[in-house]
Structures are given as C-alpha cells and as structure tokens.
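Record format v2
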Amino acid sequence: MLWVDKYRPKTLDQVIVHEDAAQNLKKLVSEQDCPHLLFYGPSGSGKKTLVMALLRQMFGSSSEKVKVENKTWKIDAGTRNIDIELTTLSSTHHVEMNPSDVGFQDRYVVQEIIKEMAKNRPIDTKGKKGFKVLVLNEVDKLSREAQHSLRRTMEKYSASCRLILCCNSSSKVTEAIRSRCLNIRINAPTEDQIVKVLEFIAKKEGLQLPAGFAARVAEKSNRSLRRAILSFETCRVQQYPFTINQVISPMDWEEYISEIVSDIMKEQSPKRLFQVRGKLYELLINCIPPEIILKRLLHELLRKLDAELKHEVCHWAAYYEHRMRLGQKAIFHLEAFIAKFMSIYKAFLIATFG
Amino acid sequence: MSDIRKWFMKSHDKGNGNAMLGKPASSDSGKPPPAKPQPDKPVHPVQENPARKKTSKYFAADKQKLKDEIEVEEVSTKRKSRKDTGQSLKTPPSKKMHTVEEEEDDDDDDFVLPTPKKSSDVTPSKKLKSGSGRGVPKKLEDVEESDDDDHKDAKSPPKSGGRGRGGRGACAAPAGGRGRGGGGRGGFMNFGERKDPPHKGEKEVPEGAPDCLAGLTFVISGTLDSLEREEAEDLIKRHGGRVTGSVSKKTNYLLCDEDIEGRKSAKAKELGTTFLTEDGLFDLVRSSIRTKTPVQEKSKSTEKAVPSLTKKTPQKVDPKSVSPQGLALGSRAALKKDQMTKPSSLTWTEKYRPKVPNDIIGNQSLVTQLHNWLAHWNEQFLDTGKKGKGKKQSDPSAKKAVLLSGSPGIGKTTSAKVVCKMLGFQAVEVNASDSRGKADSKISKGIGGSNANSIKELVSNESLSVNMDWSKHPKSVLIMDEVDGMSAGDRGGVADLIASIKISKIPIICICNDRYSQKLKSLVNYCLLLNFRKPTKQQMAKRLMQIAQAEGLQVKEIALEELADRVNGDIRMALNQLQYMSLSMSVINYDDVKQRLVSSAKDEDISPFTAVDKLFGFNGGKLRMDERIDLSMSDPDLVPLLIQENYMNYRPSAAGKDDNDIKRMSLIARAADSIADGDIINVQIRRYRQWQLSQASCLASCIIPAALLHGRRETLEPGERNFNRFGGWLGKNSTMGKNLRLLDDLHDHLLASRESNSGRESLRVDYMSLLLKRLTDPLRALPKDEAVAEVVELMNLYSISQEDFDTIAELSKFKGRPNPLDGIPPAVKSALTRSYNESSRSRMVRAADLITLPGVKKAPKKRIAAILEPSDDGLGEQNGDALAENEEENSSDMEDQEDAANGEKKLQLDLEGLNSKAIKVELDLKGNENSSAKKKPAGRGRGGAGAAAAKRGGSGSTPAAKRKR
C-alpha cells in the first residue's frame, strides 16, 4: 500500500499535524451533535483525513464500511429530463459525493439528489444520532446557482442532516453558505511538521533517513503533506538507501510545464505560441486541471522573471484565471495568457536590450 | 465639377446626387414631349444620370416618372417597342399554352412585323421619326458624353485617384500590400501559394474609359509586378475586357511580367498571342483617356456593335412570344404601360419564362430526353396495356415516371412544362410543398385513374372525370413538383407516389432539388433520372443579354457574365437581380453588378473555411460589418474554432513594418484575449440562454481577431500546407473527455478499494507519478516473477484493473517525452497480464462495474461495487493472515462476521436470501454500529457460505471461482 494511505490517521487521536483542530473537533462531536461544517485549506493539508476521522469519531467504525455507487439519476427539470451520473461513496451514516463532477448541471444534483438524501432520516432503533452526514467535496467549484440552492437545503433539513463541506478556497463559497457553517481552516502544514511526519514514516518503515533529506522533500512539496509523502515514497522507489543529494524528481506534468516555461522564455513568436498550444493541449488531455496548469506556469515564470515584470505577470495570471472560470474552453484562456506574456516579455526584452 | 459630382454619386448618396441633378431636368420634362428638339445640353446631366446608374428607386414617384419621360425622349424609342413586346409576352400564358405550334409559326410572321409595329406603337414619342433610327445616334452622343466625363475625371487622377472607378483597386493595393511587402518571399514555397507581387501596391492603378478594353480577351499568367491577380482581373473587367483561364485563339493578350516558361506562355507563343506586361496594361488603360479620339472611336465602334446586336436580338426574342392576340393587345398595353410605372409589370422570371424547348438554357440533351420519353410514353405503356404485353417486356429499362433533379432556378419546372405543352399534354401540377402530404397522394391516385373512389374535387376536374375513357380526351401529365419536400406532412407520401406510378395511366414527372435525399431513395428506382446541370455563365449571359435588350436595358456582356457567375447558375435569381437593378438604372456596368451582388451572394452556402479565408484574407479589412457578421455567422460554432486554430498563422497587415514582430505579438495577444472573451460570452449564451448575445459572441470570437490579424497566411511549421487547419479543439476536447472518463473509472476503482480516499484531481496531480513508478519500475528492474508478483499485488490492493493500468500509462504520456511503458520487456508485460488474469479469477469485483446477478433478469439500475467492510485494525496483519485465502474471501468473511455479530435474525434472512438465489450483494447493515471482528473464528465457518454467496453475486460470471472452492 502507498504510504499516504497506509499512514493516514484513522482517528482523531492519531492525528499528528493538526492536533489542535482534531481535539476541538473531538470535543465538538462528543456532545453527539454538530453544526454544519466547512473545511477549507490548501490541498494536501489534511481536510479529508480530518473529515474521515471525524466521521469515525461520530459513528464508529461503521462509517468506514462504505460502498461505492455509480448511479444515474433521472431528473425532471421542467421541460426535459436530465440524466446525471454521479459516483457516491456511502455508508449507513454518511454519503460522500463530489457534485461539481457533473459540471454545469451541478444545480440539479443539489436540488434533487442532495435534497432527497437529506430528507430521508436514517432509522435508528436506539434513537441516537438521528442524523445523516453529507460530505460534499470541492464546494468551491460549485456553480453559483448550486450554491444558492444548497443554502435552502441546509436550513430546511438541518434536523435530519448535517453537511460537511470541503473546499480549497472559502472565497469561492458564497457568504450565505459560509455563515451557515462552522468554518474550520486547515492550514498547510509547516515544513517542520512535514519533516516530523516523514521521520515518523521512516521510522515505521525502518528506513535510514540521511539528515536534511526529509527537509529537502518537505521543501519541494510546497507544503502539501500528501505531496511530501508521495514524493518521499517515489524517492524510495527510485533509490534506496537514500543519499543526501538524491534528486527529488518533480511530477511528470510539472516537468512538462517547466519545459513550456523555458520555451516561452527563450522565444516569443507565433510559431512558439503554436508549439506551446500543442503542449498545453497535451497537459489538458492528460487530465491536468487547467487552474493547476496556470498556477504552475505562473510559479515557474516567476522564478525566472525579472522583478519588474513579476507584478504585471501576476496580474494577468489572476485575470485569466478568473476568466477561465467564467469560460468553458480552458485552452483559449491559457493561450491568451501565454500570448499576453509573450507580448509583454518581448516588448520588455527589446526595450531593455534593444 | 463633374469630378465632385461623380464623387458625390459614387459614394453613398446616389439618390441625393440624382435629386439634385434631376431638378434642372424637371423643367424640361415638365414640358410635354415636344421638348424633344430641345438642345441636348440641359438634358444630358440627367441623361447621364441613368447612364451612371443613378436614379434611386426611393424617389420612385416623381423621379421614376421623370426618368420615364426622359427615356421617352432620349434614351431609346426602341425601349418602348421592346416594352410592347414585353407586354405581349405577358399575355396570359394559358391562352397560348395549347397553341405552341401556332406560336412557332408566328415566329416567321413576326419577322415582318417589327418595323411597322414600332412606329405605330410608340405613341407618346410620336414626334420621333423612327424609333429605331433615333436610338442609335442618341446613344452615340451618350457615349461621347460619358467619355468626355471620364476624360475629365482622368485629368485629375492624383486627387480623385482613390475615389473614382479605379479607386477600389487602388486603395486595395496599399492596404493589403504593406504587410505583405515585408513578408519573406522565397524560402519554402508552398503549394497553392503564389508569390507576392514584388512591388505590391507601389504603382498607381490607372483609370481609363470604361470600355477601353472592350472586346479584348486577356489571360494572366505568373506573378505581376504590382497587382495581385485578383486586382488585375478586376481592372480588366472593369474596363470591359474579358479574362479567361487559358490561352486560346481568341486571346488577345497574355498578361505576364517575367517570362515564366509556363504552359500558358508556351501556348501563347505558339498561337502568336501578344505578350503584355503590367505596365503595358496600364498604358493601354491610360491611353484610352489621354488620346481622346482613338478611344472614342473605339468605344463608338463597340457601342455601335452593341446596338446592332440589340437590333437583332429583340427580333429573335420577340417573335417567339408574340401571338396574334398578343400583338393587338400589345399596342394597347403599350399605351397603358407608358402611364404606368415599370414595377407594375410582371416579374421578368415569369415574363421571360421559356416558351419553347430551345429557349431553355443548357441541358438541351436532357430536355430532348424528356421530350422523347414523354412522346413515347403512350405507346410504351398505354398501348401495350390495351393490346397486350408485348412491348413493355421488351424494354424493361423504360420507366413510367421521370425524376428531374438539380439545384433551384435552373429550369426544371419550366422544361417540364414546356415539353408538356409542346407535346400537347395538359399538365396538372401538384406542388408538393403547398398542398400537403395526404391530399397529395390522394390527388395523384385520383389522377392515376385507378381509384374508383376518387375525391370529389378531382371528379369535378374535366380531364380526370373521364380519364377512364382515355383516348377521347386531351392527354394529361402529372407534374409532381418538389417531391423532396413532400413527406414533411405525411409519412406515406413517397410510398404512395410510387404506388401511383405503378398503376398510373398518365406520365408522371417528379421534380426535386436533391436527388440523393434520403426520402427519395425508394422513388429513384421507379424513375428515369434526369439530372439538370447548371448552365455555363456564357449561356446564361447570352440569354440575359437578350432579356436585357428586350427590356431596353443597357448592360455590358461582361457585367452579365459576372452576374451569371455570382448567382451560381440560378437563372431565376439572375433575372430577379437584373430586374431589381433595372429599377434604379438603365445602364448596368460591371461594377454595379459586382457591388450589387456582393451583398446578395451571401445566400449561397459558405463553408467555414471559406468564411475564415475571407475574414482573414488580405481584403478582410475592407469587408463591411454586416458582411463580417454574415461570414462568421455562417456557422457560429465552427467558424470561431477555425479562427482560434489559425489566427496566429496570419501576418497581420495592420502591423505594418514590424521589426522583431513586437506589434504582431501584441496583436496576437489582443486577438487571443478577444477569443477568450468569445468563450465567456458563449457560456452565457449556452448556459443561461442569453441568445441575444450571439452577435457579441461572434464579434468577440471572430470579427475582432480577424480585424486585428487579417493579412497573409504563413506556415509555422515546415512542411505544413498553407491552408487553414481544422479547429483542433473538438478533437482534443473529445480526447480529454475520454481520458476523464478513464480517470473516473480509475478513481472509482481506487475508492472502491477503500484504501484511498482522494479526489479525482489529486489522484491525477499527485498520485499518478508514484503509482506509475510503483507499477512500472519493478517491471524494469526486478527479475520477472518477482516483479510481476509485486505489481499484481499492488494492483489487487488498489483494485487497479488491467485497463486502469493502461489508463495510468496513457495519462502519463506526454508528446516529446519517452513513453512510460518503454523499457519494459514484452515478456514481462505478457507475464503480468497472465498473472493478473489468473488472480482476477478469484478476485472479487470491487470495481463499480455492472454486475448481472444470476437469477435476476434485469440488471439492477445501480452500478454497485461490492460492499466493503471496515478493516479497523492493522490491515497489514490481516492481509498476512489471509495469505492462504484469496483476498475477497477475506472481505466476504468480514461481511459475514458482521452478519454473525448482528445476530441470528439477520443471518437467517441472509440464508433465506441465499436459498432463494436472490443473491445479496448489498448488505444493508442498518444500525449495526458496533460490528467488529471479534468473532473471527466463529465467523469463519459461516464465512465460507457467505463468501460463496458473495462470489456468486459478485463474480457471478466466473463460475470457475466457485469450482475452485
């Protein structure tokens, strides 16, 4: 098994990184009730782990007895019928799903499916824990309409249903929803914390860990614990015993993006733009989310750019990222960003070096 | 003054210019006809007007009258007479219908008639001594005037150069040229790409007398010095010349700059054709103005030629249409006509509808075929019916019906009717698109004469009520028009038609536009197929010329050819256009036709590629906004994609001289930005149904990028063809969709394995690299068996199937990087597959795949994974424990353990379920919070049965597993 999964804390007590948050949560549910929760924080900080541990705390191990269902829902939307296929992960006490998977029809998921689930009160012989938990992932990707319909559901069925929402950025969740939830921010773990976890794993696995190696992995991980552990294991697969100077190879797609960046720094021409478009298509085809591509592009660009330009480039990246969300064809926006950058950078180069 | 005036009229304000100019004349025309001998002077500004295509139809009321009157005095009395004949043409067709033969006789008579008729008819202009005689000299003056005018114009070319006739060409050149001049010539020369003129736009394009090149035929070859080929063509045509594609005996000049040794020049040498350089051409054009006399003479002579032609042609046209009554009627009608304004007359398409087969343009052989078929129909089918079955069998290929097909407006219906009339058939026309489906078929049945219970309206029809007694009555023929539009209303339309064809006792002529239409598939087997082709433009121009002259319209032949070319073979449309133009002008030039039809040409289908070509073409900047919208709306989905794909290939002419491509880059950035805007708008349109934004969308995604970047297309990669690529987005998007589905499957499997709980995104972004390494590295490094064992173990653990393995490899593949599966020996690969398949026999279905349960007929709606039990404690241990057993046994054991823990009842239920073979896959463990694995040993015994049950449910399709047990 992969270490990420193997050493994932199963209970709130086992949590190493966000101990305080875990303890608070434990206290929160010890009274056997909890409000709606909104977990937010960068990816790889442990939101999901906390949620699962919390569920276990609430319902015991039966919450881990989950089944995966891939169900087609027929929804009658006035004039037409819509088929929505959605994968859910459910136990007797909770249902987990990712409503944003269905794209712009997410509204119907919220309106129909979630409502239906929320309505059904679980039968409990012992009269205990009379509610169900709905775990919704990536709420920040929900469309505005879906979020609006969600808030009604939250109020109306609060007796039988608790929502646990997970997202990366709370700013993309509407105010109304945020105010209905207990917001819990999960910070990205610090590098020290990551190092601690890595050392813990190394100890369990019985690995020789050269001094400073864990720190390097942590540094490369961009403060994502998941990333750190995964790349730690990658290193292990690549070469063991570890050496201090061992190369920590980046992800395949990250390498590819760096390639793109060095391409566009080298030459700014329509021809190069055309080639870059091909490469962007490659990334998209390989299912790398466009937002991540853009973010990574900017990250790489900033490393190589002159300070004068950084501000402007950041501005444009944010501009196009926003527009990408409004739009549908991500490649258009990515390309527009690249073209913009090329035009700015070219003008800059010529102004500076003639 | 003429200069200003000309400019005035040339630009938008034709009507005004005319109004202004019309004024002085009104005093003249106010005076009754006797004003005739009035000096030419005050009149000719006006007269020049129509000559210059003025007289807006918006001033119809008085202006029209005015014009008419002037025409009466000036332009041509011939016109009058032609109107008369026109009138006679108009005489109710029905009267003439059955007298086709007579009409043909009339032809001869009529040759005698024209002169007396003319003199007698032209009542309002009686003062004229002889209409026809008058017409010619007048016209000559006319020409002189205009020449004069042109001459003046030409004297001030430096100023008006951009505005006069040559103006369009002249400003075209610099605009288009600038960007291209800098373009690298040479280098890789692509197929279909002509070199740019080396001095593009550097020379001033001269203007000459409008007809200075009349009667001359040119062939252009190779690259010219400063003109694009289209511009040169334009220049020649504008001055009355003719441009053809290949050199023939009739070619007067071969226009080429350098001797490029091509086929054309070789042929030209052989034929002794004069070679002409571009400068030569310019001189030729210029000289027409500079040396006044020769040109005048020349144009005179050409003009002379025209009237003489016109004199002849009306006689050719008229007679056919003039019937005895027509003549009598004609003179009266002519009287009336003069009071009336022109628009009230019949549309020309009706007026000049061919009356005899020879009038039909093109497709003569088809018409003959149709004629023969119809002529022999009776003996072929009917007589055999009476006499016996002799003949019918001898000619099995004979069809009882005929199907005419071809694009609209090329005379299918007309030919059918004409042929029918000629053979004395009475045509019953059923217009399928008017009267709908069922009625149709019934009508046809009725006409077919086989049905005793025909509908009453049909009974009332003379020719039908008696069609049992065929021989005594006029033969009739059924024309089913627009059969491809027939089955819109009812389903059995075509089938019914076929049925009536089978039993029909009269010929049936079916007419359709698209013979390959799906609806007509069955029909074509019963019909003789005649496919009408579009007439050539020469054929059309000839006919149009006849008509124009019959209407007293002065049109250059070159203009008519252009018109014929533009309407794409549709003579009906050509006529309509011509009539429309005749409302506002009496002399039609090449330019008029060109301008006029630029806007009407949109009706034809534009392919997205053509649209993009036009938008980005070097003339793209001069398109009007509505044209651009039309172009980009020709396919609002595809055109933006094509533009997005190709916009960076264009070297924008707007960038001008552009060192380092800075401007180009910034233009591209703006275009890309705008394309992205278009995407955002599109989302609004599609998602929120804001269709009112579609114009904005087309503006943002097509027009702005095109406006910024139009210019010359360049290739970006060596070897690429210099044509617009098809939009890549569609393909990429579908690949992306497919891969996302695959990733989804993988994700489901991983979730089902219950080992991982990550989202889909993080699976791809974070997990994938490691998974791939774990899956492929051992295969490369370790010895075969060990590697395979390790990989299979991992796959089992995460319930990664073989397909998922491929998915992972596929998604990690990047173009230009080594394939992740490289370096794995094939032997190992196959060993892996083998080993995986082996273990999969005993593997529980964990993935969310569709399961068919034995005994349950219908597959359950839910796609269910197996149930996954909690593994609360040290998974490692358990796995170790379970080494002896298969993995899925473990899990099913666990389930059963829980069952056991749940108490007897549950178990009983379970067993019942087992017995009744309703195999339970979902264990609905409602309310058993405290299931634990404490009763492990106890559970195990039962576990066997449970596991078997689960297996039957889970992997019901592989009974082998059970046997193994």
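The mean pLDDT of chain B is 63.
Chain B touches chain A through 95 residues (CB under 8 Å).
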